[in-house]
Write a structure and sequence with these properties.
This protein is of the alpha+beta class and about 250 residues long. It contains six helices and four strands, in the order E-E-E-H-E-H-H-H-H-H.
């Protein structure tokens, strides 16, 4: 039997002045990981790829994410990784800086790319809602440790972030209100409604707007420069959803 060709992983790195950083794997929408040693990136990327493929397989979204072909096998021996771009990223957030923009974030974005990212985004958010639903509602307002967000606060934050990422491309985008407002009584359901809204909003963007580079002027982070494209919004939306799913014990 002919051996399948390796699955190639392209790695985009945010590196701090030390030896730490965040690696992004846009070939796998939403995949990223922190590293503490530059020498471990390639090996860690292969492990991340393996876990990611197993997760999308378990959620029956492998083809929907565009991962098809005989090389898409969850075996580390059949993965190959290479760093294709490296940028300064200090200070490193949990999943990267708002100001970092890679080559892969720039350029045309078609409906297929939008839908593939949102398959991951919506699946991760559905898993988050399922994890939250397993916790008695009376415990949603109790923090697990001092200084940490309560579960309700986490859900509100995740919902807010869905809108915030889209707002990076439009300073006039109205804030969510009504059943999607920050004070909505069902923060879990709000997450899913906002995800549906965000998909529709992204698909409605014109071809010209999908390629534009934007510098938002409201709700800024602490990063001195924030340059955003639709490609970057999609990448960060997916990474953020998976980051929070992992924090709740799920995901790849």
């Amino acid at each position: 039997m002919k051996r399948p060709r390796p699955f190639m992983i392209r790695i985009y790195v945010e590196k701090s002045p030390g030896d730490e950083g965040v690696a992004h794997l846009p070939t796998l929408p939403g995949a990223s990981f922190r590293f503490r040693n530059r020498d471990e990136i390639l090996l860690h990327a292969i492990k991340e790829c393996t876990a990611y493929i197993r997760w999308v397989k378990s959620r029956n979204i492998l083809a929907s994410v565009g991962l098809t072909g005989p090389e898409i096998i969850d075996q580390p021996a059949l993965c190959r990784a290479t760093v294709v771009e490296e940028l300064s990223g200090h200070p490193i957030w949990e999943s990267g800086m708002a100001s970092t923009i890679f080559e892969s974030d720039i350029g045309p974005v078609d409906d297929i790319k939008i839908r593939r990212h949102f398959v991951v985004i919506q699946t991760a958010l559905e898993d988050i809602v399922m994890q939250a639903s397993a916790v008695p509602v009376e415990q949603w307002d109790t923090a697990q440790e001092e200084g940490a967000r309560t579960l309700r606060q986490q859900l509100v934050h995740i919902g807010n972030a869905i809108w915030w990422f889209c707002s990076r491309l439009d300073d006039a985008l109205p804030e969510p209100a009504g059943e999607n407002g920050e004070d909505a009584p069902d923060p879990a359901g709000r997450i899913l409604r906002l995800a549906d809204w965000a998909l529709t909003w992204c698909l409605a963007l014109s071809a010209e707007r999908r390629e534009e580079m934007e510098r938002p002027t409201r709700f800024l982070t602490n990063d001195p420069e924030e340059v955003w494209t639709l490609g970057k919004v999609l990448r960060r939306q997916a990474e953020h959803a998976i980051e929070h799913l992992r924090a709740m014990g799920g995901g790849p």
